[in-house]
Amino acid sequence: MAAELKKLSESRDLTRIERIGAHSHIRGLGLDSSLEARAVSEGMVGQQPARKAAGLILQLIKEGKIAGRAVLLAGQPGTGKTAIAMGLAKSLGEETPFATLSGSELFSLEMSKTEALTQAFRRAIGVRIKEEAEIIEGEVVEITIDRPVGVGGSGSGSSSAASAGSKTGKLTLKTTDMETVYDLGGKMIEALSKEKVQSGDVIALDKASGKVTKLGRSIGRSRDYDAVGPHTKFLRCPEGELQKRKEVVHCVTLHEIDVINSRTQGFLALFTGDTGEIRAEVREQIDTKVAEWREEGKAEIVPGVLFIDEVHMLDIECFSFLNRALENEMAPILVIATNRGITTIRGTNYRSPHGIPADFLDRLLIISTQPYSKEEIHKIIEIRCDEEEVEMSKDSKVLLTKIGTETSLRYAIHLITVAALACQKRKGKVVEMEDISRVYSLFLDVKRSTQYLMEYQSQYLFSEIPGGVDDEDAMNL
To answer: Who's near 13: CB < 8 A, 6+ residues apart?
Structure first.
């Protein structure tokens, strides 16, 4: 299991290419050192009281004082609830697990609701596993490769480990105190070739796995080339012994450990997503093992955050499960969001604030969000234009702000990209008011769409309006 966890930890180091999404401009909560919310910072605009409250939650999470608690983000649609949750995730950093789930997801998965919630909870609980590894770290003096007969005789070269097909070779490493020659096999030569290791590089070799890590280039060889890449890092020659023992930390989640141990091809199941239901006995064994590692000082638990959006979509059974799950000693921090007012609790005939049972509401710290002002909408539109790399005139931004105020912020943001396409169509470089007006007439907002339905409702199938409903009430349906 340790080898697979190590492989999983290493696979996360791959560069991630992110596409522009609804909240890709969010970089954090936009707080200063005293946890006061700035007016505009890290992609966040307005909502200072809510962001300040989220900052206090963030501080408690970092100090480990709020595990097993729940926070509710409540407010009208389009008031930045998900943005605050994303800002919280970015502020926590990569090592703190942040799992997201939509309330409606639970009813479309091929597993029971409680199993889906259990998996979500365990995805939000991290395990930081520590182990000591033997590392050989030094500056490459020379690489000698002995080619097999038939490939061109035997020879040596110090420029690079270029021949992956070579069978044997020698690697000379040095520190400031010593110099040693190591015999190389085919696999090690292939690993050195893959990393393009050459004389003058500072490298680290993991004795257990044979992994080669290129740390940088020796500062003593900095004048060997006239030009170097922008990412070239120059290092001093390592000091002391070549062979050292270093503490290596692997960060995984409890769910990942569950999946690896629940089936033969568990590691591959993590990438395919076909995890299926996991037996309770497997989880109990893993919890026992993790508890042993904690006692021995080999691991520590990192309670993360589970964010459930559209929480009003959960039914009474799910809320009962959450009530019990939050009492577990390894429970993560639960952050939920809803835009509903007083509505029916799913699975019952009872009405409750936000569609959440009263006993579960008692457990929540409630953070309220407020509608954005005209100035805040204007600033958000400017940030989104920068994020989507759209050049827009000042008058166009003013018009888009007016549209956002009269309709909704989401609708105004959606018009940015389509207006840019309309601008490209007329071979323009800056989005003007005519582009905004064009796409505004092409794409309807909710109010105009409802008005159109009211006008032509008799021509639609199954569109009879119940008796006694006037135009104003129909607009609010």
So the answer is: none
